[in-house]
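Sample 3 of the quickstart, ligand adenosine-5'-triphosphate:
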Amino acid sequence: MSTLLLEIVTPERTVYAKDVNMVILRGVEGEMGVLRGHVPTVTPLKIAAVVAKIGGKEERIAVSGGFAEIRHEKVVILAESAELPNEIDLDRAQLAKKRAEDRLRTNSRKDEVDFRRAELALQRAMNRISLRG
Ligand code: ATP
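Result:
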Protein backbone atom coordinates (compact mmCIF):
# COMPACT_ATOMS: atom_id res chain seq x y z
CA MET A 1 0.00 0.00 0.00
CA SER A 2 1.36 3.46 -0.88
CA THR A 3 2.42 5.87 1.82
CA LEU A 4 2.44 9.57 2.57
CA LEU A 5 4.55 11.51 5.06
CA LEU A 6 2.79 12.74 8.20
CA GLU A 7 4.56 15.55 10.06
CA ILE A 8 3.17 17.11 13.24
CA VAL A 9 5.02 20.23 14.29
CA THR A 10 4.58 22.61 17.23
CA PRO A 11 6.48 25.85 17.94
CA GLU A 12 8.73 23.76 20.21
CA ARG A 13 9.43 20.57 18.30
CA THR A 14 8.59 18.00 15.67
CA VAL A 15 6.26 15.64 17.51
CA TYR A 16 5.79 13.11 14.71
CA ALA A 17 7.35 12.43 11.30
CA LYS A 18 6.64 9.09 9.66
CA ASP A 19 5.54 7.48 6.43
CA VAL A 20 2.01 6.21 6.98
CA ASN A 21 -0.71 4.62 4.85
CA MET A 22 -3.55 6.91 5.93
CA VAL A 23 -4.16 9.93 8.15
CA ILE A 24 -7.50 10.56 9.81
CA LEU A 25 -8.07 14.19 10.78
CA ARG A 26 -10.90 16.04 12.46
CA GLY A 27 -11.25 19.19 10.38
CA VAL A 28 -13.73 21.95 11.16
CA GLU A 29 -16.01 20.48 8.48
CA GLY A 30 -15.82 16.92 9.75
CA GLU A 31 -13.59 13.85 9.74
CA MET A 32 -11.28 13.33 6.76
CA GLY A 33 -9.39 10.22 5.71
CA VAL A 34 -6.30 11.27 3.77
CA LEU A 35 -4.43 8.93 1.41
CA ARG A 36 -1.48 9.62 -0.88
CA GLY A 37 -2.69 11.64 -3.86
CA HIS A 38 -5.31 13.62 -1.92
CA VAL A 39 -6.37 16.94 -3.43
CA PRO A 40 -4.12 19.65 -1.96
CA THR A 41 -5.90 21.76 0.65
CA VAL A 42 -5.50 23.54 3.98
CA THR A 43 -7.97 22.98 6.79
CA PRO A 44 -8.27 24.22 10.36
CA LEU A 45 -8.38 21.34 12.84
CA LYS A 46 -10.53 20.65 15.85
CA ILE A 47 -8.97 19.69 19.18
CA ALA A 48 -8.88 15.94 18.63
CA ALA A 49 -6.71 12.90 18.08
CA VAL A 50 -4.99 12.58 14.71
CA VAL A 51 -4.88 8.92 13.72
CA ALA A 52 -2.03 7.50 11.61
CA LYS A 53 -2.62 4.08 10.05
CA ILE A 54 0.51 2.10 9.35
CA GLY A 55 0.17 -1.48 8.13
CA GLY A 56 -2.47 -2.97 10.38
CA LYS A 57 -1.63 -0.62 13.25
CA GLU A 58 -2.93 2.75 14.39
CA GLU A 59 -1.01 5.51 16.17
CA ARG A 60 -2.83 8.35 17.84
CA ILE A 61 -1.48 11.82 18.54
CA ALA A 62 -3.30 14.41 20.66
CA VAL A 63 -3.43 17.64 18.65
CA SER A 64 -4.70 20.93 20.09
CA GLY A 65 -6.24 22.47 16.99
CA GLY A 66 -4.08 24.28 14.46
CA PHE A 67 -3.99 23.62 10.72
CA ALA A 68 -3.35 20.73 8.37
CA GLU A 69 -1.69 21.39 5.03
CA ILE A 70 -2.50 18.47 2.75
CA ARG A 71 -0.40 17.82 -0.35
CA HIS A 72 -0.35 14.86 -2.74
CA GLU A 73 2.46 13.14 -0.88
CA LYS A 74 2.41 14.63 2.62
CA VAL A 75 0.35 16.08 5.44
CA VAL A 76 1.89 18.77 7.65
CA ILE A 77 0.07 19.64 10.86
CA LEU A 78 1.00 22.86 12.64
CA ALA A 79 -0.43 23.02 16.14
CA GLU A 80 0.13 25.01 19.33
CA SER A 81 0.71 21.72 21.15
CA ALA A 82 0.67 18.01 20.38
CA GLU A 83 1.63 14.90 22.32
CA LEU A 84 2.08 11.19 21.73
CA PRO A 85 0.12 9.04 24.21
CA ASN A 86 3.24 8.10 26.21
CA GLU A 87 4.13 11.79 26.62
CA ILE A 88 0.82 12.68 28.20
CA ASP A 89 0.85 13.31 31.94
CA LEU A 90 -2.56 11.95 32.93
CA ASP A 91 -2.60 13.63 36.37
CA ARG A 92 -1.85 17.00 34.79
CA ALA A 93 -4.65 16.54 32.23
CA GLN A 94 -7.10 15.53 34.96
CA LEU A 95 -6.19 18.61 37.00
CA ALA A 96 -6.59 20.81 33.90
CA LYS A 97 -9.99 19.22 33.26
CA LYS A 98 -11.14 19.91 36.82
CA ARG A 99 -9.86 23.50 36.69
CA ALA A 100 -11.71 24.14 33.44
CA GLU A 101 -14.93 22.56 34.74
CA ASP A 102 -14.77 24.70 37.89
CA ARG A 103 -14.30 27.83 35.76
CA LEU A 104 -17.23 26.92 33.52
CA ARG A 105 -19.43 26.30 36.57
CA THR A 106 -18.60 29.55 38.34
CA ASN A 107 -18.34 31.82 35.29
CA SER A 108 -21.90 31.36 33.99
CA ARG A 109 -20.96 33.24 30.79
CA LYS A 110 -20.46 36.59 32.57
CA ASP A 111 -17.15 36.83 30.78
CA GLU A 112 -17.42 35.31 27.28
CA VAL A 113 -13.67 35.31 26.69
CA ASP A 114 -12.93 33.47 29.93
CA PHE A 115 -15.77 31.06 29.22
CA ARG A 116 -14.45 30.23 25.73
CA ARG A 117 -10.93 29.84 27.11
CA ALA A 118 -12.17 27.39 29.73
CA GLU A 119 -14.14 25.45 27.08
CA LEU A 120 -11.01 25.06 24.96
CA ALA A 121 -8.92 24.06 28.00
CA LEU A 122 -11.55 21.43 28.81
CA GLN A 123 -11.42 20.08 25.24
CA ARG A 124 -7.61 19.85 25.35
CA ALA A 125 -7.70 18.03 28.69
CA MET A 126 -10.41 15.59 27.54
CA ASN A 127 -8.56 14.90 24.30
CA ARG A 128 -5.40 14.05 26.27
CA ILE A 129 -7.30 11.89 28.75
CA SER A 130 -9.04 9.98 25.93
CA LEU A 131 -5.69 9.05 24.42
CA ARG A 132 -4.61 7.44 27.67
CA GLY A 133 -7.86 5.56 28.16
P1 ATP B 1 -2.15 22.92 31.42
O1 ATP B 1 -3.21 23.80 32.02
O2 ATP B 1 -1.94 21.64 32.16
O3 ATP B 1 -0.85 23.65 31.11
P2 ATP B 1 -2.94 23.32 28.67
O4 ATP B 1 -3.98 22.63 27.85
O5 ATP B 1 -3.22 24.75 28.99
O6 ATP B 1 -2.72 22.44 29.99
P3 ATP B 1 -1.16 23.70 26.48
O7 ATP B 1 -1.13 25.20 26.46
O8 ATP B 1 -2.00 23.01 25.45
O9 ATP B 1 -1.54 23.19 27.94
O10 ATP B 1 0.33 23.13 26.35
C1 ATP B 1 1.46 23.76 26.94
C2 ATP B 1 2.62 22.76 26.86
O11 ATP B 1 2.42 21.73 27.84
C3 ATP B 1 2.73 22.02 25.53
O12 ATP B 1 4.10 21.78 25.27
C4 ATP B 1 1.98 20.72 25.76
O13 ATP B 1 2.46 19.69 24.91
C5 ATP B 1 2.30 20.45 27.23
N1 ATP B 1 1.21 19.75 27.96
C6 ATP B 1 0.02 20.26 28.35
N2 ATP B 1 -0.69 19.36 29.05
C7 ATP B 1 0.05 18.23 29.08
C8 ATP B 1 -0.13 16.93 29.63
N3 ATP B 1 -1.24 16.59 30.31
N4 ATP B 1 0.86 16.02 29.49
C9 ATP B 1 1.99 16.35 28.83
N5 ATP B 1 2.23 17.55 28.26
C10 ATP B 1 1.28 18.49 28.38
